[in-house]
Amino acid sequence: MAVNELKNQIRRLRFENSEMTQQQLADKVGVTRQTIIALEAGKYAPSLLLAFRIARTFAVTIEQVFQYEDG
Amino acid sequence: MNKTQKGAWCILIDSLFLILFGILLFTEIVILKNLFTSLHRFIALLLFSFMVPLFIFLRKKQSTAEVESDERDRLITKRAILVSFVSVWVLLAAVCIIPRFIVGYTGSIPVWVLSVINFAIFLIAMFIYSAAILIQYGWRGKDGGK
Questions:
Q1: Which domains does chain A have, with CATH numbers?
Q2: Position with higher pLDDT, B77 vs B64
């Protein structure tokens, strides 16, 4: 069975955006820091709404933040 | 550590204390036929004195902009509720079967035991609920959260 993975660039984008901390990003998108940690570690797939909020915070498209990979 | 995790720790510790205190009271008063002694009062006081700092800890925030809970917390809580709900049914089934082996098919038990059983099931369900939340978060915030 193929393993599908949702990869993300949140960590890289945070550092490219004046080294934004996880707490700052969490406060901007309205989630807890633990959720950002889980997202960065690939342990949690966000809702579409949260994905849009994160992309908008970094002023990029969703595809630039999240990549769906067929394993 | 966010509010859901803190709440789960509070429930876990409180339910564990109440379960242990209940076992102690049951053993002392029902099995050993002792009265409610000063030791029991001391343990009860200790139990309640533990609850106060727990609630202060629950209210403390990491940052002023920190949200109370988010979509992941709600998902984790939902799964934990499902697990504790299933555990209640399993415990109820066990409670219906186990007395049969202890007092027999035609035996009887005092009415107050039913209240104790109901309360014990509630405490165990709360314990399972909080443990399920903490396991999903990775106990001590293994995923990096403090």
A1: 4-70 (1.10.260.40)
A2: B77
- β-pair partners for B103: none
B143–A33 CB contact, under 8 Å = no
The percent of residues in chain B predicted with pLDDT above 70, rounded, is 84
- Whether residue A33 and residue B145 make contact (CB cut-off 8 A), yes or no, is yes
Contact between B105 and A66 under an 8 Å Cβ cutoff? The reply is: no
Residues whose CB is less than 8 angstroms from the CB of residue A31 and which lie 6 or more positions away in sequence, other chains included? A50, B67, B70, B71, B72
State the Rg of chain B over Cα.
Answer: 19
Numbered residues of chain A with Cβ closer than 8 Å to any chain B Cβ: 23, 26-27, 30-35, 37-38, 41, 43-44, 46-47, 49-50
Which sign does the torsion angle of CA B23, B25, B28, B31 carry?
A: negative
Work out the angle between the directed axes of helices A33-40 and A22-29 (0-180°, nearest 10). Answer: 110
Give the pTM: 0.78
Q: What percent of chain A has a predicted confidence (pLDDT) above 90?
A: 73
Alpha-carbon distance values, B96 to A55, A70, B117, B126 (Å): 54, 49, 11, 20
pLDDT of residue B119 exceeding 60, the answer is yes
Chain B: give the shortest CA distance to residue A41, in Å: 8
Complex ipTM value? 0.80
